[in-house]
Write a structure and sequence with these properties.
single chain; alpha+beta; Hemagglutinin Ectodomain, Chain B; three-stranded antiparallel β-sheet; three-stranded mixed β-sheet; 6 strands
């Protein structure tokens, strides 16, 4: 392109020709494709890196404190649970102390009348069953009831013409508890189906 003499405008380029950028339209700084908008580009304010670093340090500090609080809470919960288990164990053992006292009393009278000793042992057994019931584990030793796999464990099947099929004929070992809170199922024999 010929250079125009001083004071004179250059000739316009031919139609459709690519024009070089004009010097008065360019802005200093990186080209538009390389510049990345910052997090505050939406509101047009620029935040220095120091503010971001301070906010990051504050967030990390809060995060570390929350983790420490959670760890302390977990440790406190474990200590409280251990204390509660120990207290419950002591309450349960204390509930059985009268049973042990009565068994010792029965043993001290072992030379007395055998009928009285049997009655005493039966009373102590009833007392122990009552303690278990108060702890939430009632006794199940019923015969003639329909077989329930949640409450009964079959240890034998017998032919009994007087019993309905699939009913408990004899309880060999009583069960204690209900559904999910069961210490053990009752060991039973069941009438055979014909």
């Amino acid at each position: 392109m010929p250079i125009a003499p001083q004071g004179r405008e250059p000739d316009p380029p031919p139609e459709g020709a690519v024009q070089p950028p004009r010097g008065d339209l360019t802005q200093p700084g990186p080209p538009a494709e390389q510049a990345e908008p910052g997090p505050d580009a939406a509101n047009g304010t620029a935040v220095p890196d120091d503010d971001y670093a301070a906010a990051l340090r504050e967030a990390e500090d809060r995060w570390r404190r929350a983790l420490a609080d959670l760890d302390n809470l977990r440790k406190r919960h474990v200590r409280e649970l251990e204390r509660e288990v120990a207290a419950e164990r002591a309450r349960t053992a204390a509930a059985f102390l009268p049973v042990i006292d009565n068994l010792e009393l029965a043993l001290s009278h072992a030379t007395a009348d055998p009928g009285a000793i049997v009655e005493g042992v039966r009373a102590v057994r009833d007392q122990a069953v009552n303690v278990l019931e108060r702890l939430g584990y009632p006794r199940h030793a019923e015969s003639g009831v329909p077989f329930d796999p949640a409450r009964h464990e079959v240890v034998g099947v017998v032919q009994d013409p007087d019993a309905d099929p699939n009913t408990v004929v004899q309880v060999l070992r009583p069960g204690y508890g209900e559904a999910e809170r069961q210490l053990r199922p009752a060991a039973v024999t069941v009438a055979k189906r014909e």
